[in-house]
From TrEMBL:
The lineage of its organism: Bacteria, Bacillati, Actinomycetota, Actinomycetes, Propionibacteriales. One of its GO terms (molecular function) is hydrolase activity. PANTHER family: ALPHA/BETA HYDROLASE DOMAIN-CONTAINING PROTEIN (PTHR12277), XAA-PRO DIPEPTIDYL-PEPTIDASE-RELATED (PTHR12277:SF79). InterPro entries: AB_hydrolase_fold, Hydrolase_4. It comes from the Bacteria. It comes from Aeromicrobium phragmitis. The chain crosses the membrane at residues 12-29. Residues 95-181 form the Serine aminopeptidase S33 domain. This is Alpha/beta hydrolase. The keyword tRNA-binding does not apply. It holds the Pfam family Hydrolase_4. Keywords: Hydrolase, Membrane, Transmembrane, Transmembrane helix.
Length: 277
C-alpha cells in the first residue's frame, strides 16, 4: 500500500471512529434533546386562576404528579372536561391562557404536567408520558368526567400522547394541535444528516393509533410552523380514521399567541358540539 493510500485509510478510519462516537453520544443524550421541561414548581392552582384546584395524579409506576383542575365559567358549564396534554417544553403555567379560553367556553380543564415537569418527580419518556396521561384520565373520572364526556387535547408531542391514549381509553373526541405521523418525521426534518429512524427510542407513532380509530378527531396547525412542518400535520389529517375538522391557521407558527387563543379554543368547542350530544 503506498503512502497516499495508507494516509487515506487512516483518515477514513478516524472519520468512522468520530462518526461512531457522535452517534453513540446522540443515543445517550437523545431524551435531553427531545424533552425540555421547566422543572420549576408552579405553586398552587388558585394563585393562578380563581377557583382552580390542585390535583394529585398517581401513576401506575408509583409517581405522584401535580396538576391543575380549572373550573368552567359558572353560567357556561357544559359538564364536559378537556384533558390538556402539553408539548415537550415549559410546564403548565405556560398553558393558563388557553385553559382560560376553554373555561370561558364552559369546559372544565385538567392541565397535565408530565413527570419531570413543573416540579413533578421522575424523568420523561414515551412510556412515562403514556402512564401520566392514563393517571390524568383516572383523576378526571374520579371528578365525575368519564372519557365519554372528555375531549383529549394534545399539543405538539402531546398529540402523540393522546393519540395513544384514545386507543385504550376512547374519549368523546380528540383535538390534535401541530401533530405529526411519527416523531421520527419531525426529528428527520431537523437533523437530516443523522440516522434518527434507527436511533430514536421514543417514536410517538401517532398515525398508527389514529388510522383505524372511530373517535372524532380535529387537526389544527399553523401554516408557518417551523418546528412541526405543516405538511406533517396535513398527513395526519389525511390518514386519520375519523377526521371531522381540519383547521389551518394561516401565517401562524408553532408557539404563536394564536395557538393558545380563541382560534384553537373555538375548534375545541366545535368538536365538542359535534361529538357530545
Amino acid at each position: 500500500m503506498n503512502t497516499i493510500a495508507r494516509r487515506s485509510a487512516r483518515v477514513a478510519g478516524v472519520v468512522v471512529v468520530i462518526g461512531g462516537l457522535f452517534v453513540g453520544l446522540l443515543w445517550a443524550i437523545q431524551r435531553s434533546l427531545i424533552y425540555l421541561p421547566d422543572t420549576t414548581p408552579v405553586g398552587p392552582a388558585d394563585a393562578v386562576m380563581p377557583g382552580a384546584r390542585d390535583l394529585t395524579l398517581t401513576t401506575s409506576d408509583g409517581l405522584d404528579l401535580t396538576a391543575w383542575l380549572i373550573p368552567p365559567v359558572a353560567d357556561a358549564d357544559r359538564d364536559i372536561a378537556v384533558l390538556y396534554a402539553s408539548g415537550n417544553g415549559g410546564n403548565r403555567a405556560g398553558r393558563v391562557t388557553i385553559a382560560g379560553e376553554l373555561a370561558e367556553r364552559g369546559f372544565t380543564v385538567l392541565l397535565l404536567d408530565y413527570r419531570g415537569y413543573g416540579g413533578n418527580p421522575g424523568s420523561p419518556s414515551e412510556e412515562g408520558l403514556a402512564a401520566d396521561a392514563v393517571a390524568a384520565v383516572d383523576a378526571l373520572e374520579a371528578e365525575g368526567f368519564e372519557p365519554a364526556r372528555t375531549i383529549y387535547f394534545g399539543e405538539s408531542i402531546g398529540t402523540g400522547v393522546v393519540a395513544r391514549l384514545q386507543s385504550t381509553r376512547p374519549p368523546a373526541g380528540v383535538l390534535l394541535r401541530s401533530p405529526f405521523p411519527e416523531f421520527t418525521d419531525v426529528a428527520a426534518h431537523h437533523y437530516p444528516f443523522v440516522p434518527v429512524r434507527l436511533l430514536l427510542r421514543d417514536r410517538f407513532a401517532s398515525i398508527d393509533h389514529l388510522r383505524g380509530s372511530d373517535v372524532p378527531v380535529c387537526v389544527v396547525y399553523g401554516t408557518t410552523d417551523t418546528i412541526v412542518p405543516p405538511d406533517l400535520s396535513r398527513r395526519v389529517a389525511a390518514q386519520t380514521g375519523n377526521l371531522v375538522d381540519e383547521v389551518p391557521l394561516e401565517g401562524v407558527g408553532h408557539n404563536d399567541a394564536a395557538m393558545f387563543g380563541p382560534p384553537v379554543a373555538d375548534a375545541v368547542e366545535r368538536l365538542a358540539d359535534r361529538a357530545i350530544r
